Amino acid sequence: MTGESEGRSDVPPVDTPVGSEVKQPSEKNDADSAALSDDGNSTGGTENGDGGSDSSELLSPRLPPPPPPPPPPKQDGPPRRRGETYAKYLKRTWLCEVEKASMQEWRKKSWHNVRWPMPIIQAFYLQKPGTQATAPSDETSNPDAEKEEAPTPDDSGDLKNLQRIQINSDYLHHELLSIASVSTLWDPLIVPPPYKLFLRFLPEIETRLAKLKGELKEPTVQIDAGDPEDPTEEDASTAGKVTEDSASVPGSSDQTPDEAKTKLKRADTELDADRRDLLMARYNHLECLYQFIQDELREEIEVRRRIADGTLRSIRFEDLWHLVEPGDIIFSKDHGRDQLYKVYFVTGGQALKRTRNREEITEINSIRDKLRYWIPPEQREEDDEETVEKMLREEGSGIGTWSPFKVDCYMMAFDGEYCGPIDVCKKIRPYVGEREITSLPMYPLRFHPKHDALVREMETRGRKFLFAGGHKSYDGRTLAMKRDESRVEIQSDVYVDFDAYYQDFPVKKPSLGKLLRSKQNYAEVEEFCAPGISVYRSLSGHEVDSKLSDDFLTVNRIHLERFKPEEDEISPDHLCLMPHYVIGYAFQLRKWYHLDLALVQEIDRESANARAAGFDDLVIPKRYRDLLVALVDNHASGLQREKEKTKHGAGLPVPTQIDIVRGKGQGLIILLHGPPGSGKTSTAETIAAYTRRPLYSITCGDIGTTPEIVETRLLEHTRRADKWGCVLLLDEADVFLVQRDWQNLQRNALVSVFLRQLEYYAGILFLTTNRPGVLDEAFKSRIHISLRYPSIDLESTKTMWKNIMKRLEDDNKTAQIKVIFDKDALLEFAQRHFEKCDQEGVTWNGRQIRNAFQTALALGHYERLAKMREADMTPEEALASGKKKWTSVKLTKANFQKIAKTATEFEQYIESLRGNDSVNARESELRYDDYDSQRLRARKQYPASSGSRDAGHQGHHGRRGQVGKQKRPVHGGKDTDEEEEEEEDDESEDLSPDEND
């Protein structure tokens, strides 16, 4: 911006170049803010090398926009004399040569004392070419000295010897303006290192020279229409004035037609000659610049040539801008995974010409104050304050320091409905010397040693990303997207759902298609005109970066729009830019995580069959099994209902609605109650695997204890479970099912909230409890089916032992260390142990049997390791030996006896302390374990070949009941045989499946 700061309006523009832009720091409030990009999106910096937009742009205070800068004054030459040919005028005005001087003369030069003729180009060096570093002299330079060979780069630093190139020629300025197609080139044009304007458009300069040379060969010269430098316009207007004056001169009207034609022909000839002279001047000036570039910037030209043909292997920091341009695909390593990006803006990587002024620092401080005091803590981003501090440290450096090289690029993202580009900023910090291109944090894909294979791999991964949603399996560590996040090891089922994640965290939803550009550092292209004067001299450089970015965004506008992946055909370019991660919900930890896409796997049929086999091994009555499978397998999820509605339209009849209130009572609520270890939780877990549904297990800790939190969290969990078609398991749910009273209002509120959620939940919910006596009576009518799990009997105990030993045998087929055991001996121990404990009422339940096997295996492994230590062998040597002694673990009856003795001692201690748990539960009206066990025989009743309902399945399935233990009758008298048969018939009619099933 131009103008003087308040309080310094009387300061004259001393040492300001004629026609250069004069800037005041007080007028730069929003000049450093990013301008609107070509597609209307506001541009701004990005926060760090990992991506995202610069917080300084997003959080900048709303300041009134500064007034637009006035056009710079034009550098006019001396007036053209009357009757003077254009060739003589050009000779008297411009010297078609390059004047070379030192930077000391540049700083002390008087810009207002312009002497004609003026050299079209002035070059300034750290020291005057051909001389040693001496005090500047006021004597005029010898033209012959300008042809001396340019000196080598100064040894005092990394800067090149050539420091400034000033274009004085109006004609050369206009040619560069048309070649680069930019409208912000000031007159005179001052180009500092790295000379982007010249090097980036050098091929266009060559093309323009060839075109001008061809026009000079034509007989009639045509000048570009609307050329502001066309001298013929002035000649035409002058000719008009002469004609008017001649009309008033006596005798002028006496001209014959032939004389008038001759005079007009002479004027056309002179006009054509002027145009040819102008064209020749343009050609000569542009050729002079071209030759100067070839001589002085030959090293940079060679670097660009080697980058173009891919032969460059190492590069300096100041040459990085040659490496990357808008439209390039770059390669980077993110979280240890390959990732491709497409570049749309490049800036930075230059030496600073001035320090950050007070007004700019104040602007950053205002952003920090707004972040601290204006934005609520819950709405703050974790990296905002750190970003502001980085801005103060990085961009507040002094003259001679280097700004980081910034590359604004984009990758594709998915918001649950649409795919589209999101902006990412990659940075390279300044370094000394040269570095291998492939060792940089990011570099163009064409330099990758296996770029073709990498592109194919990225396309495959992109297709996997688009269709990675749904129920998956994950085994590995999660990704930490932010510094304060930690990586977590997960080995469980996950559900990938971007839409559900952004519903829970709407502020994290990406803005697809809105690409922000990094804020350009004006200290790279501005310098103080003179010491002690707060006015700036504008230099060239940033307009080239903006022009290239604008061109790319304009041409590729249609490719930067968001799209629906299932509707539009996805191009390979978009597939390559898909991210390497997905967002999934881990059922084991009940939390959202960023998951490595390479570790997300489908649940294959073999794994699914293995999971489903667990339900077959579950020791529960057959009628329970058939009833649960029928109810769970036929219940539609919320996602399935939505798909059916979308597929068939809203005009189809809705499913049967039994309840008089719409949307009420559509869920499936199942209560499982019984003593601990009887298989309640295992039933819900295995039925989910059997029906190919995810298991969504929550506890009271996931829901909360206050009514407000319970209602919010329970709604979140039930919404996800219904949408994904999960089996929702609330283990030990008696906390929320407890009976209400008139004393505890908070507990009553919890029960009321839970009752309300059960009414309108449309999914599958399993509730387990071992205290059914505390249930509130209102839950009875809301539970669709309630199943009681009695204690296990001898046959059920033996069946559980057989099932576990069968799984050990299956694992021995692939395990390196085999588990050896005597099946008959272990079954004999199981029977004797049950008979002994049954008399004392402390038999093992299913969970205790599983724990006993795990402990026995641990003891067996310890015995093997002890023998290895005695033999002085390592685990690797033991496996390599191949001997059965070192590659097997024994599961012995002796180990089980040790475990049983320890467990019995603990049970006896607890019973002597507080009595029998079953008896205590009955006396406290919490549970009645001996309830009518003969009527409800808990056994796995698989029909025999004869079709008999009571015939037991001869195999690994057993019965559950009470054997060897006297049960107290529930009713006052004994039931007759006829009554028992009638009751069994009623049960068969209500719960049992068809006998021929």
UniProtKB/TrEMBL annotation:
Regions of compositional bias (Polar residues) in chain numbering: 130-143, 245-255
InterPro entries in the cross-refs: AAA+_ATPase, AAA_lid_fung, ATPase_AAA_core, DUF7025, P-loop_NTPase
Domain spans labelled AAA+ ATPase: 666-790
Superkingdom to which the source organism belongs: Eukaryota
Gene3D superfamilies, A to Z: P-loop containing nucleotide triphosphate hydrolases
Coiled coil regions, renumbered to chain: none
GO molecular function: ATP binding; ATP hydrolysis activity
Feature: compositional bias, Pro residues: 62-76
CDD domains from the UniProt entry: RecA-like_protease (cd19481)
Name of the protein in its database record: AAA+ ATPase domain-containing protein
Start-end of Basic residues biased regions: 954-971
Biased composition (Gly residues): 42-52
Comp. bias (Acidic residues): 226-236, 976-997
Pfam families for this protein: AAA, AAA_lid_13, DUF7025
Region (Disordered): 1-82, 130-159, 220-266, 930-997
